[in-house]
Amino acid sequence: MKKRCAWATDEPNLSYHDKEWGRPQHDDQKLFEFLVLEGAQAGLSWTTILNRREGYRNAFSGFDANKVAKYSKKRIDRLLHDESIIRNRLKINSAVNNAKQFLKIQKEFGSFDKYLWSFVNGKPIKNHFKSPCDLPASTKISVKLSKDLKKRGFNFVGPTICYALMQAIGMVNDHTLECFLFRK
Could you tell me if residue 7 is inside a domain? Predict the structure, then answer.
């Protein structure tokens, strides 16, 4: 049996761990997806968000930032009644606001990918943590990313959320030493 990070014990975490978490992601639409999902996760378990991922995909136009940036107040009000997502006005408004800021960064840098990955000089950071207890909630880089995103008008992008985003999209590889994916 494969050894995995301690948090990957059942679905949907197992599939997410084995197929996505810590793997470098460079597709802007996927990056926007994780930006929305990590913001929605604030104060909740990641399992809760993974179980609603398809609902988020449907509610947020397949994570098309161009479409989400144009959501009207009426559309936002409808989302507040959508049981397939977390119905929190601040988080929903944040997704729409962040879509607008995301598009500005794409215009300025050519892609959101270039912007994000510049914080790690385009290369994933591979950590060597023995246990999940060793993983930090944030790092100097996630603090720097958070400050820059906030300066650019994003919200729900604190240092902890930014670090979770960095882990999700493979900017950092935090698979623990015993995990079979640590070696990859």
Answer: no
